[in-house]
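Weekly puzzle thread! Below is a chain. First person to post its structure in token form gets bragging rights.
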Amino acid sequence: MTSAVNVEHPDIDLQVEFLCIDTSNLWRNRLGNIAKDYNLSRLELRIIVFIGRYPSIRQADLASIMEVEPQSLTRALESMEKKQWIFKGNDEKDKRAKCLNLTPDGQKKLQENLAMSEKIRPKILQNISLEEKNNMVKILSSIKENLKEI
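Winning reply:
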């Protein structure tokens, strides 16, 4: 069901806020539902993607970037370590800290995730021109930066 967006709406800022949040949640939920077919929870999916994007990331930094409670992350990481998808190594700068990396099985899961995402992304972004996508990237990047400053 497609709903028309009223750009003349008196509370356009509020409409932008809700559309961003709703769209992000919907997209994440769709990916989470597909992840189940790959025996991944939504959290595990996100963890694998973030560790793949930021190899050797410290656990505290991962929790911060993902905006999850460290306790939730710890349980998920322990489970993923048992499944041999990730391993914890020593941080060269801080011997007390542990760095997270993907194992070969974790790399395989990451590639499955990327392939899964590639299957639905074209459907999600259909009928959106390259120019509109470029504008969306600029706008969302600005919103992200503004949020970081708050």
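Puzzle host: Confirmed. Bonus trivia for everyone else. Helices lie at 12-35, 42-53, 59-66, 70-82, 104-124, 130-149.
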